[in-house]
Design brief:
The chain has 327 residues and is α/β, with parallel strands linked by helices. Helix content is 43%, strand content 15%.
Length: 327
């Protein structure tokens, strides 16, 4: 039996699908309040009701499992209560790792984020070995994921059989909530991307990213980190690719960073006061100050990570959003 957390979300759902496709018996950890829509067409799943903040429920979920994929996280920017994110991402991860150890789980894959990868001041590509510290983390999400990753690395040094993966920006179908990257695609489709700023992302097909999790479990070295990424693209090039896919016009204006900073600060401040989700995330704007360009060569070399060109999953994402009433 394999336990998967986060299977009701974008990446975790694809990990669960990849395991089911290989004939594995899969148990998914879901909260009592979880939206189970993405699980409805997956046959044979065993559901374990629990919460990352409830250690007893985690021990029950992990009992009898030989492998664990911990993909769940509080993946939100500009949260009103950072402590809530900390409890899920940091304390919840510690609780789950401890429960897995107690239950005798033989192999664990922990899903971190590319945000925990250092970016050289020289502009060179970030790798798993680039020095980085908590002070380099922008925003609550990155800070809590970095703290969780450090806790997992400490447990690995003490014998926990865990491999860490650092996905970049997965794109593709079934981005239900959607993720911040999915929101970017939706803004383009809704003609709400009149301008871009000088930043960039590393995109990866969500199916390849899910496969990378399975490969990390099979081939990854315990205690090692693996960047699961594919192609570094400036934001303007991502917009042009979406324009070619959809036939919609690409933004022609490049916004100065200072203007984006002010717009993000104002919109986020007002939105949080009104208990609404910001249209222009201040946290995302601050992250965009640096291009998140990284090198996934280690995962390609050691795990045989697939490298599907991003045009294909971007097209699938567009089709899925359109078919499911997002546009």
């Amino acid at each position: 039996m394999i336990l998967v957390t986060g299977a009701t979300g974008f990446l975790g759902n694809h990990v669960a699908r990849a395991l089911v496709a290989e004939g594995e018996a899969v148990r998914v950890l879901v909260r009592a309040s979880s939206n189970l829509k993405l699980l409805e067409d997956l046959p044979g799943l065993e559901h374990a009701t629990g919460d990352l903040r409830d250690r007893a429920s985690l021990l029950r979920a992990a009992k009898g499992c030989s492998r664990l994929f911990h993909v769940a996280a509080d993946y939100r920017f500009d949260v009103a209560d950072p402590e809530e994110t900390y409890r899920t991402n940091v304390e919840g991860t510690k609780h789950l790792m401890e429960a897995a150890a107690e239950a005798g789980v033989a192999r664990i894959v922990y899903t971190s984020t590319v945000g925990c990868i250092g970016l050289p001041a020289s502009g060179a590509l970030g790798t798993e070995e680039t020095p980085v510290a908590l002070k380099d983390m922008v925003g609550t999400y990155k800070r809590t994921k970095f703290q969780a990753e450090q806790a997992v690395l400490e447990m690995a040094a003490q014998g926990l059989p865990v491999v860490i993966v650092n996905p970049t920006a997965p794109v593709g179908e079934r981005d239900l909530r959607p993720t911040p990257t999915g929101e970017m695609i939706l803004r383009f489709l809704r003609r709400k991307m009149p301008a871009v700023i000088d930043t960039g992302l590393n995109l990866i097909d969500v199916r390849d990213c899910a496969k990378g999790h399975l490969l990390a479990c099979e081939r990854g070295r315990t205690g090692q980190r693996y960047i699961l990424g594919c192609k570094n693209l400036p934001l303007v090039e991502i917009a042009r690719t979406l324009a070619r896919i959809t036939g919609l016009p690409a933004p022609k204006v490049e916004l100065p960073y200072a203007v984006a900073w002010l717009a993000g600060w104002f919109d986020t401040t007002i939105s949080l006061r009104r208990d609404k989700t910001p249209s222009i995330s201040f946290e995302a704007v601050r992250m965009a100050r640096k291009r998140m360009f990284v090198d996934a060569a280690k995962a390609v070399r050691e795990l045989a990570l697939p490298q599907t060109p991003p045009e294909e999953p971007l097209a699938r994402a567009v089709d899925w959003f359109r078919a499911n009433g997002y546009v």
